[in-house]
Amino acid sequence: MNLAAMDPSNYEAQLAEKKRKLSEDFAQFTPPELEVFSSDPANYRMRAEFRVWHEGDDLYYYMFDKVLDAKVRCEQYLPASTLINAIMTSLVEELRPNHSLRHRLFQVDFLSTLSGEILVSLLYHRQLDEEWQTQAAALKLRLSSQFNVNIIGRARKQKIDLDKDFVVETIKVNGQDLHYKQIENSFTQPNAKVSIKMLEWAIDATKQSQGDLLELYCGNGNFTIALAQNFNRVLATELAKPSVDAAQYNIAINNVDNVQIIRMSAEDFSDAMAKKRSFRRLEGIDLDSYNCNTIFVDPPRAGIDDETLKLIQGYERILYISCNPETLKDNLQTLSNTHSITRFALFDQFPYTHHMESGVLLERK
Q1: CA 92/CA 133 separation, integer angstroms
Q2: How many percent of the chain have pLDDT more than 70?
């Protein structure tokens, strides 16, 4: 983390540099003009993690600055949401004089929402006892006078939820309220306002779709819920059980009735579609009944494996969201043999860093 680089007055220049680099790196695929979706220059991150430093009676948050090669005290944190910044101050003032809550505390994680909920996770190098639970419950009660907050305590092989381990985010996408259960320690989009722009772009890119949608790596159903309106049915896969559970919850609270979630890896699902193997989890699901002309993928940083790439090439249209331009570029070496890029987008999820989120729509040549 380079804290000194986080200067809102330089935001437009760093975004312009990302646009230049992404356009240059993908020129070989002759994409259309890059669509650029900017971030707020401050208070854009819904998640933040801080280490905790103990110094006599003092206790404070810090981050490690790689440029300075030193830890930097954080009273406030420019990228974090206004809600995180507000509760940071109140929380540390509560922790400092409280031996039970501060003893061997080494990290604090925050998960906030645009709709006002916040989850605070306190991580310890010791086992948590009844006294900790009593003090944590009193802390939650005091903080609840200002915040819609829940607290979790974590230690080795121990997790204590005072109430619940998730928040429910409500965002407005094309004028429609969408609700998402976001579980502690599970992946969620860090920049909520840019995530809204990503969803609206994906909806627009698929608005003329026919038939059904196949989605791989669906997570908590972030894109699934938003895209369902453009298709007759959606068949989505995800491996992580907490994410699958959250996706089922999100399908229900958004009253979506045309989505089927399967808990499988993309690799196993590729084998199932190719009829190389049969899987118990697919019993009762007629894969042949789906008429999927479009496939949507949002893979991890490692990109897509070779077998799954072969599966993807069988579809007329491919919508690909990538958090790693290098692996996207590598995957496009294969996909560009059969498909052309017809939409190309940069989503600035991570201002002041080299990280770039991008999206491509590919259509069969």
Answers
A1: 18
A2: 99
Position of tokens 């989503």?
347
Q: What torsion, rounded to 10 degrees, do the Cα atoms 131, 133, 137, 142 define?
A: 50
Model pLDDT for residues 28-79, shown as the tens digit of each residue? 999 999 999 999 999 999 999 999 999 999 999 999 887 778 889 999 999 9
| DSSP letter for each residue of 299-350 | --TT---HHHHHHHTTSSEEEEEES-HHHHHHHHHHHTTTEEEEEEEEE-SS
- Please pick, among 74, 218, 292, 323, the residue that the annotation labels catalytic: 323
Q: Is the dihedral of CA 273, 274, 277, 278 positive or negative?
A: positive
Q: Is 354 helix (H, G, I), strand (E, B) or coil?
A: coil
Whether 357 is catalytic: yes
- How is residue 278 written in tokens? 């049969």
Taking the C-alpha atoms of residue 268 and residue 251, their distance in angstroms, rounded to an integer, is 23
Interstrand relation of 35-37 and 47-55 (parallel, antiparallel or unpaired): unpaired
Q: Cβ atoms within 10 A of the Cβ of 91, count?
A: 22
Tell me what pLDDT residue 3 has: 66
Distances (CA, A) of 87 to 41, 80, 92, 118, 270: 20, 11, 8, 9, 45
In angstroms, what CA-CA distances link 164 with 151, 154, 158, 159, 174?
Answer: 8, 13, 15, 11, 30
Tally the residues of the chain. 365
pLDDT at 2: 64
H helix or E strand, kind and range, residue 201? helix 192-205
DSSP strand pairing (259-263 vs 292-297): unpaired
Give me the phi and psi of 337, to 5 degrees please: -70, -30
- The question of whether 323 is a catalytic residue gets the answer yes
For the entire predicted model, the pTM comes to: 0.93
- E strand segments, the chain: 35-37, 47-55, 58-65, 70-73, 105-112, 117-124, 148-155, 158-161, 166-173, 176-183, 212-216, 234-238, 259-263, 292-297, 317-322, 339-347, 357-364
- Catalytic residue, chosen from 117, 215, 238, 357, is 357
